[in-house]
């Protein structure tokens, strides 16, 4: 046994004044007598005597010395060295992936078991030890860096929680390796149920593994997708059994919160099946629920529900005014969420007057007179624009179309413009629009707002360039059409995973955008201006997210929504592992690195308090049986 604070033993000298007080204590016995006259000489003699007396055996003195000894030893912090993960500089990688929510443990979840194991490591730290606590989620986070304060480490551990997504172990290993720089004999402990990728590099120093989890029984929804049809939509739901035994479950489909259909699914070990439905035309929110029906456990709940949002995602109506452009016609035919209507230049005005559209596309034709009726996309603008404030005027032709300046704009996300070739472009004057791509003599792409409507303009003819033949064409068109569709999610992928960042484009006339999370929490942010998307990253919850726009007057209107689903085959396979392999290393579960320290001061403190209670009880009992004598 060793002491972490041996200087506290000096407090043991307090035993000296306790013994002296007992030696100085005068012991008199009270007696009732008739007169004090005959006792005066005796009292005078006793007063003259020295107060020091021979120390006699005294139970209360012994108990008080024992109390002092227990308290002094508690302050000295005695410890025992035990086999464990502790010692020196230790880095703990705490798995916070979705599989750690499995409930096959004695605690509430595997993560609670991992938290308890980490708390044991914190308790085993000695005075010179330092611990770095890293939470390994989708973005690894250092909860506490090289700290010896157990309270700080415990508070950081208590604040940690698992996520609804996979863990980024590559980034976590890089973060751990960076934390070891300059440390002597660093040690790493991985607290996890497994599931680490195989291509991880080796870690410096010794590595230990504290496994959690006991079983792998689980049923999961692997995928869910809808495809619009003439009569509504077709829905596909994939169900899998990643566990080691055959399973049976009940797959229920809810449409607009009402039960639509239920089917029994039977799956062998590691087997997957797909079910399809034809949904009614009024289907808005579609939810699939999976429940076991064989009496066996389903230890992970986050993968048992999935959502598809059909309402609010109606097709955007696009009016294409052109003499004929096969590239644009094919683009809007394959671009999801858009319905194309074609009109010749001479009939465009009557078509636009008789119906409303979400997007107006003018290809090589003059713009109509008057203010713009909606979001507008222009290709190869032509002279003869008639209107009070036209968005642009053609002033000439550009032959040198090499781009000399490319703005940092979300419209150009994932677009490489350097390989583009353009024969010629129109030279335009557009004070209300901002150049996005410029040649030496004028802009090639502009965007901005005119009369409260968003406008984007390509100053060249698509057929006079190789843009439609480039991979950049569908990408830039998806970016621009999303920007021209206020309040829509920019991400073209309908399958959003927990933790995904969703760019949102608000209406230019809106003062703020709000997102209502599945649990009812409301996220709100003021709009940043035209062309600047709002990045929404609070997507850890699974379910339906509702988007709303708030006008400066305070009026709120719905602007669609999106669904976040947990589809992760690796995380749904919750069977724990006993051995980790990374680099050239193989670490078995329960392997211990070095020695840990177990502090004994709580036991000494409890013992001291127990002896104090005994001492109080003896004193109390003696006071009850003591006779009372008075002198008269």
Major pleated sheet:
8 strands, mixed
Tell the overall outline: elongated
Task: Indicate the mean pLDDT.
Answer: 82
Q: Could you tell me the number of beta strands?
A: 33
Put simply, the count of helices is 11
Quote the beta fraction.
25-35%
Low-confidence segments: none
Rg from Cα: 39 Å
Q: Strand sequence of the main sheet, in spatial order?
A: 16-15-17-18-24-23-22-20
- The percent of residues in helical segments reads 10-25%
Explain the overall architecture.
- With 632 residues, the protein is of the alpha+beta class.
- 20% of the residues lie in helices and 33% in strands.
- The chain is built from 11 helices and 33 strands.
- The strands form 9 sheets. It has an 8-stranded mixed sheet with strand order 16-15-17-18-24-23-22-20, sandwiched between helices. Strands 5-4-3-6-7 form a 5-stranded mixed sheet, with helices on both faces. The protein has a 4-stranded antiparallel sheet with strand order 11-10-13-14, with no helix packed on it.
- It is elongated.
- The two termini are 61 Å apart.
